[in-house]
Hints:
Elements: E1 2-3, H1 45-52, H2 64-77, E2 82-86, H3 88-95, H4 117-127, E3 134-137, E4 143-145, E5 150-152, E6 156-159, H5 170-175, E7 180-186, H6 204-222, E8 229-234, E9 238-245, E10 248-252, E11 255-256, H7 262-272, E12 284-288, H8 292-302, E13 324-332, E14 337-343, E15 348-349, E16 359-365, E17 370-380, H9 388-397, E18 406-411, H10 416-421, E19 461-468, E20 473-474, H11 481-500, E21 504-505, E22 514-516, E23 522-524, E24 531-532, H12 536-539, E25 547-548, H13 554-558, H14 567-585, H15 594-608, E26 610-613, E27 616-619, H16 621-628, H17 635-641, H18 645-662, H19 674-697, H20 702-712, E28 772-773, H21 781-793
Parallel strand pairs: 2-10, 7-8
Antiparallel strand pairs: 1-2, 3-6, 4-5, 6-7, 8-9, 9-10, 9-11, 12-13, 13-14, 14-16, 15-16, 16-17, 17-19, 18-19, 20-22, 21-24, 22-23, 25-28, 26-27
Helix pairs in contact: 2-6, 11-14, 11-20, 14-18, 15-16, 16-18, 18-19, 18-20
Amino acid sequence: MVHSTCATPAAVFSSNYSCASSSSRASSTFERSFYDCTSASTSMSSLESCSSTAKRCSCELTNESELNRLYIDHAQSTDGLWHGPLPLHEWKKRFLPSREIESYEIDFSAVPGLHDAINLENRVAHSGLCATVFPRATLGVHGQDHTTNTLFSADFSILSEDLEMDHDSRYVRDELLSRTMAFGDIVPEKCDPCPFANGKPDTEEAAYTRGRLAAMARAVAVNSHRTFCYAFILMPELARLMRFDHAGIVFSELFPWRTSGDLINFLVSFDCMSLAQRGCDTSVSRIASDSEEGVQAKEILACSDALPDDVQHSTVIPADYHGALSLMNVYDDDQKIYHRVVVHRPVKAVEHYVGRATRGFYGVDLDESAVVYVKDAWRIASPNAAPEAATYRRLNEHGVPYLPGFYLGGDVPEDTASLRAQSSVTSLATAVQSTRSQLLLENRDELLKRPRDAIIGLHAHVHHRLLFKKIGRPLKSFKSTLQLCMALTHGLKAHGAAYEDAMILHRDISGGNVLIDKHGQGMLIDWDMCLWRENKEEAERTGQKIGTWAYISADLLIGRSKRPHLLRDDLESFLHVLYYHVFRYRPTVPASSAAQKELFASMDRVFNTAWSTDDGSVGGVAKSHYICSPAHFDPCMMRDFVHPLPLRRLMLKARDTFEPMYASEPLVRKSRDEDRIALDLERRDMYLKALNTARTRLQTPEYFISLFSGLTEDYDPERFHWPSDDGSMDQFIPSRPKPTTAVRSTAGSGESRKRSAASLGDDGTPSGKAQRVSASRNVSAGTLARARRSLRGKRSTKPV
Length: 800
């Protein structure tokens, strides 16, 4: 049993097979190294066979180059997270329900060696072995991922509805992914996703298949409500079964699917499963938009004023929508009660399946008669990581201001229907939805062949769902620079009260975790990586890089001093958020000028720089330089171009707070000149005094809060003028359109990767939020894999 490792560099495949309903078109020759998106590579011919057998559609709807990049990303995001091969009998014992099933025989021997999905569908469908699900060849139709607008097509799908395989049907396109219960791909033998499991070298074709499967699992999960997902891979003679959950992927050994009957056994077993056994989240049910709950939700929505001005009511439930909605039963594990919440589709979803897999919904709480925000995530089950619902309860108990209004939530029960049927659930200890892949590693160390850089640990994840009364919009949507700074002031006040009164340190201050509510006030969200300060073991853990890379303090990124994550690191993160948002979203230096190019280069170095060492990934040198020197964001440049005056004053004073922490101690030179020695001693004394002052100021949150509030809330209007019309104007023009850009959340943060900063993204990266990383043993395998992958994909930038 082995893990997958990084594949060797490979060329990206581009399909050239058309569907029946559209004319074929020539495929593009998009050439790129598989694990290095920035370099050209060899020809595509070695990967074309991954799809030629299945004859996948490449009509005008298919953006092949974007899909290729997506598969690269997903292949990298799951490095080290493929676990197996599990003997087939054990895979079935662990993951399939044990029951007597009817015996079927299908003559797969007559399927051609170069088989296709339609031929396979005909064999399975005509056998009558599936009575409750519908095995279909889906390679000629497309399912739309409504969070990214990307179209996906699995070769073969097991559907919950007998959809007509009509390529041009809007209904099929909208519903295909949500109706997919399991899926499979049909590939030649050299495209086996796990050749390393049989002692063979990992290949470009294998990595491509892994990425495609992982991307499909994510697309199915975010467009439905799933706890895990089954998948399979068919080659001319051999096959594998796979199970995806948020801790990792467990795959079976190879088996001869034509002759062994194991594929038939899987399909029959799947047909007999309950919804929960198929990986469906039974706390959520589909309802018609004209159902009693749907009508009630629309009535509550019509009367609500909870949404910010920039968010339309149609974002919650489209006015002319007649399709299915979802009814969530949200359980509060403190009050032991349920609330019914109607949602349409996620407005936010992270781009990878393994890990926390956070999604956000606008919803209507029928029991609260309110429009709310729903955060749905898979938290790490660790004694050192408090559930976010428990954290919010503690924050509320201590009256911490400027929070998103958490009022109900907790871990999702395993059997919602049975629990709801109970007359009282007050004293019940309920089983909760959790991952199972991590159980594979128990007592199996001797069977695992681990490459040197493989991720070893898998952590149990637990399904966690939270409801919030406040709905915010992104910090980057500020209407004026005063509103930007006021939101950060409010975030600082929430952070300070949490630290001093509730004894909680946030540890993930970022541009995505400070929102602006409908009244223009800031609120601090996403406390899932926080520290309860009485947890001494975690509080004293050293060498951790916790947070969102672009905003982590310079000292933690540099990593020279092995120390814990401290209050001052979070305060410094507020500084980086301020600088990033001003220079990214305000027209400071003249457009297209040399000064602008220099500014963008500085932002690249300050917020994106990372390189790998034997001790992990490090960065932060350019950050330390901008704090203690004019190397980046020169104060002279700021005096000329950053307006208004109170904004510039705030930026410089906030920066000066940290300057002594990064300044070099003056040397006392050996000399016969007593005046020179005296001058050196005086400089060193001044340095030590400034350092001591800075350390004292940063031991508590009061000074930094007063600095912000003094220029935003308590300023002298006769001396300082804040204009009301200097709102956000994005200064970075994308180099090319991004049709697969994810919908951004207005009430929650996500995890996204860092890339080369040729064009920086919303939070210091070219697309989406910056990567959240942690070296903590509490961090998920998915987060660590994506952190390593993001740093591996980014060009190394030498310290300056």
